[in-house]
Design brief:
- The chain is about 25% helix and about 25% strand.
- The chain is globular and about 60 Å long.
- It is built from eleven helices and 21 strands.
- It is α/β, with parallel strands linked by helices and about 375 residues long.
- Strands 1, 2, 3, 4, 5, 6 and 15 form a seven-stranded mixed sheet that branches. Strands 8-12-9-10-11 form a five-stranded parallel sheet, with helices on one face. Strands 17-18-21-20-19 form a five-stranded antiparallel sheet, with helices on both faces.
- Helix 1 runs parallel beside helix 9.
Amino acid sequence: MHTDILIIGAGPAGFNAAKAASTSGKKTVLAGSEPWLPYWRPRLPEIIRSGAPVGGILMQQAGWYHTAGIEVMTRKTAARIDTTGKTVFWNDGTTTGYDSLILACGAASNIPKFPYAEQIHVLRTYEDALSIRDDCARTGRAFVIGGGVLGLETAFAIAETGCKVNVSDISEYPLPRQLDKEGGLFLQKLLEQKGIRIFCAVPPEKLKDDIEGACVIAAAGVHASTALAAGCGIKTNRGIIVDSHMKTSEDTVYACGDVAEFSGIMPGLLTIAAEQGKTAGMNASGTAIEYTPVLPSPSIKVAGVSVLSLGSMAVPSGAKMYRQSGDGNYAAGVILDGKLTGASFIGDISAGMKIRHLMENRTDMSAVASFADILAMVS
């Protein structure tokens, strides 16, 4: 079999790459290792909660791919790539030739060594979600390793099944990538009031009674799946190194999403994966466009508490942090060299998208002396 454009990986990056490439009219094949059509991985906690069929979280139904001219190959795992012969060899013994190749292989979950755990689950696939749901029903207790976005969303989904759940994080507070310490502690207090207990910076050896006999789930970050690219000589670092066209060190091979490293950065966010996928798909099909970095803006809702983070909440030397809290709401902003570089909201996030425009437009904020001043600029 031969195709004009072959995409390995059927997550959001691969899906958007296929969608963009197919507009050229060239033959586009999207290959994924799972038995399902592409689905929304961020919605897997819903499956833990409901046990619903995968059809409810599909990105598109089968008819859409037919209309778009995209061939989807399921249950396909790549064994190796011959970039000279432009051929992918699959684990099932078949091969696919290509003119252009897009690697959207994603990432694999980190599984830390953790005492007292009989088994450690991860949440990357639909089947993972069902396995966690079943194990929680069996044990009646769950322990989530990691207080980031995935960890908190997973914990809440488990709690909604009636299972008791605890969360542990090595940081001093939950969501350390999205919030400053004061905001993280504010969120922790709100979640604990809703029955989700969070242990921060507590050695696991002190949590034996909470871990032993529980369904243990690792939500402790991921690492890019670079082995396939490295195996055929494509340059990798933490991820597959790409330029602004999402092109790798091999002329006819592109990469996007969680597996791609652009300018030393690997955000691991859905909106960024989608934009990189679009860029890779257009370039692979012959339309030259450059990737424009997307402002990181992860948003979650846990136990009825909304959280939105924009940019970076790191406070480098010379930066100023402004905060505002009350009535169950918290907001903070970081200003560096007269520009807003990060903002976060807990509870009421309604001002978030307006403030995002201030950041994207690099609005002068040098006169700001409080968070109320920031809000006044968008009211």
